Amino acid sequence: MRLAEIATRRVGIWGLGLEGRAVLGAVAASPAGVVVVDEREASAHVAETLPGVEYDWGAGSLERLLDCDLVVVSPGIPRTHPFLETLRAKEIHLTSGSAVWLESEAERAVGVTGTKGKSTTASLIHAILNQPTGTGTDADAGTGTDAGAGAVLAGNIGLPLLAVPPGPAAVVAELSSYQCFWITRSPRVAVVTNLYEEHLPWHGSLERYWQDKARIAVHGAAALVCDEPTLAKLLSVEPRVRGLPTLLAATSGEDIVDRDGTRLLTVRELPPHLRAGHLVSSVRLAVLAAGAALETPLSPDAVRRGLAGHAPLPHRLETISHGGGLVWVDDTLSTTANSVIAAVEAFDAEHTVLIVGGQDRGISYQPLNDFLLGSPRRVDVIAIPSNGPAVVAEFGERHPDRVHPAAGLREAVALAARLGSPGCHVILSPGAPSYDRYANYAEKSAEFHDAVTRLYPPTPQIAQIA
What is the CATH number of the domain that holds 273? Predict the structure, then answer.
């Protein structure tokens, strides 16, 4: 259902996070009325109330949605929530803010989803699209075109989709599995970075999780971009993927290629911050997706400039300090076994101290244990609540001297400082969400930063007198 149709109905907004507030901004003037509900208490909200909009907070507030013609559901509401069935039984139309935007704007959208690498891949596509794209070799000679100029980064990274300004510019939208679940029209270019085990309580099962991811492509995408292992997983749960035009990214080799196989650059030519294996995968996907979005050959120079200008994302393998002769790395966005493996592999360190643990979701950490048991380099693991000890249980049974429990993150930082050898990398890569003890990953990251800074205060800069 398009936004213009929604604005004439009595609209319920379930959840007032970033996307919920964007929805409210788009439909607040609905003549039939708008009601906002959130099971959290009013104190959890910082948004000011708008005149003419009804609000209800806390337990029991969901009943207000039964009087609506349509309910826009925020991404944090799990597909297994029992009240969704109550609304469906009353034949109340359900959708999400991202799905509403795509109904009208799918043709200019490049959608990016996957278990890991979504943010990096989306930001790389955005960086490439905003370079001149002609085939000339001189960036200053004006030989390129501006087909991708003005591209917008949106969704989970950048603007909420309903806050994106109208216009012809391409929109690169990072979409979580929660947002994909509601999609009824796919972006023109759909990218799936990879598929692992994740978010099972929200989706109900691994099969449903992968099926919900597949929705980014099976509702009209003109191109699906992924690698061969990911395509096989998509096909195992969603037969409609078979009929999609698909661009397959290589999983090995030195060349980074365009859609037609033309070599644009090699892995060795990538900026140093993009040479780790999982980041090379993101580059390969981004190049194919940018070419599909532009429908024109990419310029090697444009790709190089875009990649060179790409900044590493906060909380994703972000070096925050060299205190005590150690390299302290924030990888708080890591929530799976595979992302922890990628974090350790990203650095050529003889010794790594790894801090793991967070909210338990019942997923398997066997791949991480297998990796640690087979690693030729020394890895010490500090296990913090809630599930840290369980994450590395098998590794701990074989190497009890390398697993160290800690009661919390601050204790883990102090312990890492004692365990670390000169040049050692200390990586906070939880392998799990942060909601067990923190509001979100950013709050957990902030405590990590603070603990490291307190242990190793920055050296004051002395002003030079001319």
Answer: 3.40.1190.10
The contacts of residue 384 (CB under 8 Å, 6+ apart) are 355, 356, 357, 358, 405, 406, 407, 408, 409, 411, 412, 430
Looking at residue 420, which CATH number applies to its domain? 3.90.190.20
What is the C-alpha to C-alpha distance for residues 116 and 334, in angstroms, rounded to an integer? 8
Give the CA angle between residues 433, 99, 107 to the nearest 5°.
115
Q: What pTM value is reported for the model? A: 0.82
- Report pLDDT for 44: 60
* Per-residue pLDDT, 375: 93
Domain with 204, as residue range(s), is 99-308
Largest CA distance in the chain: 76
Average pLDDT over residues 73-82: 91
**Domain-located, residue 463:** no
List, for residues 41-52, the tens digit of each pLDDT value: 775 665 568 888
Q: Can you tell me the distance from the alpha carbon of 247 to that of 222, in angstroms, rounded to the nearest whole number?
A: 11
Size of the chain in residues: 466
The 3-state DSSP composition of the chain as helix, strand, coil percent (nearest 5) reads 40, 20, 45
- Check whether residue 247 and residue 281 sit in a common domain: yes
